[in-house]
């Protein structure tokens, strides 16, 4: 990372700390902001966040490694999270999982080489009576079918052609 990028990152973190407060309670919201903008939490970020909040970096690492929505590795522009909890499992989430893996050519826990899609499992998304449910970034989809997986991915791909994403995009659907 270039020095100017580091400075920009530090500036962003300081702004978020000013917004959310400079104590421990700001830790998760600040990490979520970093995740939204930069798609992952690097060691440098953990150090800066720890310095800014005046806590030990190990504490930051503990939070990052505990919460699956906050990642240590870079993630795709579209993060697809398929519910794996019992109701969705009974409503055929395995067919959706297979379709996603086939269409994207990756397994769960992986990101496509072009950096556009990451596939992850999620626990109950609160849509149990309308499963299978999945999230694409912050947009929820219910009663997903293998056919609708095609449509959802196509819409995301079309969005890539329409403009360049800047890190804070939401699902275009
Ligand atoms: S079990 Fe999937 S949304 Fe609740």
What does this entry look like structurally?
The chain is an alpha+beta fold. It has two domains: 3-66; 78-162, 3-Layer(aba) Sandwich (Glutaredoxin), CATH 3.40.30.10. 49% of the residues lie in helices and 10% in strands. The protein is built from seven helices and four strands; from the N terminus they run ααααβααβββα. The chain is elongated. The two termini are 33 Å apart. Bound molecules: FE2/S2 (inorganic) cluster. FE2/S2 (inorganic) cluster binds next to helix 5.
Taken in chain order, the helices and strands follow as HHHHEHHEEEH
Number of domains: 2
Oligomer: single chain
Under CATH, the homologous superfamily of the largest domain reads: Glutaredoxin
Give helix % range.
40-55%
Structural class by sheet pairing and helices: alpha+beta
Q: Determine the strand fraction and express it as a percent band.
A: 5-15%
- Got a strand count? 4
CATH class of the largest domain: Alpha Beta
The helix tally amounts to 7
Give the overall pLDDT as a whole number: 85
At the third CATH level, what is the topology name of the largest domain? Glutaredoxin
Bound molecules: FE2/S2 (inorganic) cluster
CA-CA gap between termini: 33 Å
């Amino acid at each position: 990372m270039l020095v100017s990028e580091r400075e920009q990152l530090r500036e962003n973190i300081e702004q978020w700390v000013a917004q959310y407060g400079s104590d421990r309670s700001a830790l998760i919201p600040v990490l979520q902001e970093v995740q939204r903008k930069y798609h992952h939490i690097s060691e440098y970020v953990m150090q800066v966040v720890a310095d800014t909040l005046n806590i030990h970096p190990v504490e930051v690492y503990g939070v990052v490694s505990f919460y699956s929505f906050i990642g240590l590795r870079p993630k795709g522009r579209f993060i697809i999270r398929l519910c794996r909890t019992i109701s969705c499992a009974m409503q055929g989430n395995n067919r959706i999982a297979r379709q996603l893996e086939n269409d994207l050519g990756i397994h769960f826990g992986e990101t496509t080489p072009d950096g556009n899609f990451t596939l992850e499992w999620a626990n109950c998304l609160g849509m149990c009576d309308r499963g299978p449910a999945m999230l694409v970034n912050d947009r929820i989809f219910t009663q997903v079918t293998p056919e609708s997986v095609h449509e959802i991915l196509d819409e995301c791909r079309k969005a890539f052609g329409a403009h360049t994403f800047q890190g804070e995009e939401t699902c275009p659907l």
